[in-house]
Amino acid sequence: MKVTSIKSMVGHALGAAGAQSAVAAILALREGKIPPTINYTLDPEIDIPIVGNTAQDADGHYAIVNAFGFGGQNVVAVLGKVEE
User: Fold this and answer.
1) 42 falls in which pLDDT band (50, 70, 90)?
2) Model pTM?
């Protein structure tokens, strides 16, 4: 499991933030690259596998997108690769 956020690169798009994250997750699954959380400073006290500052290769088949927006939008979507 790896953790990342595109918000550091695109800002907060209000109601469209979840859609942006979903598109990024779909592209990450398709391309096999996890986008980084830019300007991230590693905290050695936190044991979370954060993808910081540089994209990483991925071979996963699923991605989870958490979208919590202004106005009470709360969505969690699980996306997966379709095998041909």
Assistant:
1) confident
2) 0.84
Task: Give the DSSP per-residue string, 8-73.
Answer: HHH---GGGHHHHHHHHHHHHHHHTEEPPBTT----TT----B-BSS-EE---SEEEEEEE-TTS-
Where residue 39 falls (left for φ over 0; alpha for ψ -120 to 50; beta otherwise) is left
Start-to-end CA span in the chain (Å): 24
pLDDT for position 26? 95
Query: In one letter, which amino acid is 37?
Result: T
Q: Quote the longest CA-to-CA distance of the chain.
A: 42
Question: How remote is the C-alpha of 5 from its chain's centroid?
Answer: 5
